[in-house]
Amino acid sequence: MRTKTLLIAAAALAVGIISSEAQVYSQNVVGYINLTVPAGQIAMIANQLDTGSNTVDNVLASGAVSSSTTISYWDAAAGTYHTFVYYNSDDSLDGNQGWYAFDNTPCTNHLDIGQGVVINNPSGSPITLPTVGTVVQGTNQYTIISGLNVYSIPEPVGGTNAALDKVGFPVISSSTTYIQWNGALGKFNDALVYYNSDDSLDGNSGWYKFDNTPEDLNAAYWPQAGVSFFVNNPSASMTWTNKFIVP
């Protein structure tokens, strides 16, 4: 998926620095992310801007989306997806545009900060979903549940090294696995497992293929702005303490 990121603020911003110092930071930095899904493809997208309500209709509101576009939530407890379809005002039963369950019930789900969904664009044209909101700053905590679930980096930064532990993501050596959709190839990249320096064969810490090939420096595996990914947490629920400021 090609994702173009633009951040708009009152002054020029240098976005992309993960900081461990969060005592002083700017307030109310507003931005937008254009999420582009190519024709006839799926993508894993995320909410990285606080829209206020963070409902699906509020985060992914766009009259440019054609009817029959779907989004699918991963239900970790059930091990399955829940899918919603987009209808414009001509196609919906209530005359409104937005996301609906297949029984035409309006979608009331939230797409909270750091949460992602799978989107399917079956049409013959690319679609663009503009998301607009506030960049969440300071120190914030997110729950990483036990088992497989979808996550994203909470702030809209791109090109972040695949070693999610460097942005505070809790990992367990030899156990935590990371899987990302590769839109260019139309399939998932190889799963990566995290090793600390004691467990890896080369004495380094980071993400490796199961054949022990290090992939931290391979940009094809890096989370990008507006992108979500799967992580399998083999332990009980853990807390992700994420710290971010815009200089």
Description:
This protein has a 5-stranded antiparallel beta sheet with strand order 3-7-4-5-6, with no helix packed on it. The protein has a 5-stranded antiparallel beta sheet with strand order 10-16-11-14-15, with no helix packed on it. Strands 1-2-8 form a 3-stranded antiparallel beta sheet, with no helix packed on it. The protein is an all-beta fold and 247 residues long. The protein has 1 helix and 17 strands. The longest helix is centred in the N-terminal third of the chain and has 4 residues, at 56-59. It folds into 2 domains: 31-134, no CATH class; 138-244, no CATH class.
| Class inferred from helices and paired strands | mainly beta
Number of contiguous helices:
1
Which percent band covers the strand fraction?
35-45%
**For the residues shown, what is the average pLDDT?**
83
Features of the shown structure:
single chain, 247 residues, mainly beta, five-stranded antiparallel β-sheet, 2% helix, disordered N terminus
Topology:
Layout: E1 3-7, E2 30-37, E3 41-46, H1 56-59, E4 70-75, E5 80-87, E6 98-100, E7 116-121, E8 127-134, E9 138-144, E10 147-151, E11 177-179, E12 181-182, E13 187-188, E14 192-195, E15 206-208, E16 229-233, E17 238-244
Antiparallel strand pairs: 1-2, 2-8, 3-7, 4-5, 4-7, 5-6, 9-17, 10-16, 11-14, 11-16, 12-13, 14-15
Brief rundown of the structure:
About 0% of the residues lie in helices and about 35% in strands. With about 250 residues, the protein is mainly beta.
